[in-house]
Amino acid sequence: MNLFLLRHGLAAERGAGNHASDAERPLTGRGERKLERVAEAMLAMELGFDRIVSSPYVRARQTAELIAKALRAQKLLEFADVLTPGNPPRAVVEFLDSMKPVPDRVLMVGHEPNLSELISLLVAGDSSLAVAMKKGGLCKLSAEVLSPRRCATLEWLLTPKQMGLMA
Fold first, then answer.
1. How many alpha carbons lie under 13 Å from residue 157 in its C-beta half-sphere?
2. Of 12, 92, 109, 125, whose CB is crowded by the most CB atoms within 10 A?
3. Closest alpha carbon to 9 in 75, 70, 51, 64
4. Helices 29-44 & 58-70 angle (0-180, nearest 10)
């Protein structure tokens, strides 16, 4: 499996605007513009996915929708509560293991520190790996079989700035 992890783009600050909860914070205009460059880089890299799964939080949903539209992959997009903040990485692995048929290329859109914790679990087997994903950052992991232990290889981890240079 090739697992791609994308952190949502720049979002409104907590407490700013009329957002009743953290889940309702939208992307900022600047966040949308940066993600458009990320999408251009993904196109330039000729990335394609069997499934796109996103946290239902507004900023992640908007990120996933923008990327899916740019890749002409809206039909592949789904939302899963397992990607909301606070869920343990093992729950994400169980979710991925439950996918039938097993996809070869999955893009997951979520939040920090969840994504970094998932990377650490799959690459190091625990939380010892220090990983920091920037907003709009993209990571690729590869694994023969996913399990909640050391099972994956970190292929690359790109910042949005690096991706902007590729677009």
1. 14
2. 109
3. 64
4. 40
